[in-house]
Amino acid sequence: MKKTAALLLAGTFAISMVNTAAAEVKIPAAYIALGDSLAAGQTPDSQIDAGYADLIAQELGRNQPVALFSKDLAFPGFTTADVLERVEEEETKELLASANIITLSAGANDLLRLVQANPADGSLQFQRIQSDFALNKARKNIADILNRLNEAAPNADVYVMGYYFAYPHARESQKEGIAEQLEILNRILENEAEKADAIFVSVDDAFGENATSKVPNPGDVHPNLEGYQAMANEFLAEYRSGWTIESRELPQPNPVSFEEILQVQEEQADENPQPAAEGEEPAEGEAEQTADDQSAQLFPSLQSDYLAIRTILPIV
């Protein structure tokens, strides 16, 4: 590993810690997936379908009672700062309080948004100083997120999902630098998980640096169902030894486009307009503007039974 990477790691990992967190089977399971588009189940074609969270919930349901499964707190494009802001909201705390299993995917967008990838020639470019700064900020945010989760969901086991190498189609000569940065990110996630008594789920070995069968689109970093299966199985290896998702058990594809999700949101906003304050009449034109604002609003109601998104980004 290069000297700059070693220097960044020195302050973060000066003390080696033993992970004392132990996985426990939760009956009935109340599972909430929190984080970015991997938690949401974004496909290599920029749609939403079954992701690792859905596969985990499916396997839980095959083996034990499941009282709740939600990925209403999973949003494509979310950075650690976005996740931290989300978990500090009161309605989020109410939902988290019911959970006894939480998976967290956060950190990749802090880093990968700095990477300039050219699928045409297989090149990868990034500025190491910017990357080091982003990783340090992600470390602080992850620590805060885990502290908030421990407060909001005291009965939950928190599983921090690691990341895979997202550019298997890049030229071999281009992979080393960003692979080092992703390794640092995974080390940060593991270290912060240990300090918070959470459980780190490593997925990079299940992918490697050449997992083109799991990340098939050279212009997109998201995995297909085979990739999500690998991630879910790494979680299950931590949760309950012997539980695994076989390929024959994978659901049939049923992708939903972002446009379809937004249409559902707009319809829900039209059906559930926000009432004016008691004794207050909307100003002229204000009612129309309120409807427009609701249609444009991309944050979901926590009671929704579909995945809503905050923003559309071609990143994790």
Q: In percent, how much strand structure appears in the residues?
A: 5-15%
Largest sheet: 5 strands, parallel
Count of DSSP H/I helices: 12
- Give the low-pLDDT segments: 1-20, 282-316
Quaternary organisation: single chain
How far apart are the first and last residues' alpha carbons, in Å?
25 Å
CATH superfamily: SGNH hydrolase
DSSP summary, beta strand count: 9
Name the structural class: alpha/beta
Order of helices and strands: HEHEHEHHEHEEHEHEHHEHH
The figure for the number of domains is: 1
Task: Describe it.
The chain is α/β, with parallel strands linked by helices. The protein has one domain (24-257): Rossmann fold (3-Layer(aba) Sandwich), CATH 3.40.50. 44% of the residues lie in helices and 12% in strands. The strands form three sheets. A five-stranded parallel β-sheet has the order 3-1-4-7-8, with helices on both faces. β5 (116-118) and β6 form a beta hairpin. α4 packs parallel to α7 (128-152) and α7 (128-152) runs parallel beside α8 (172-195).
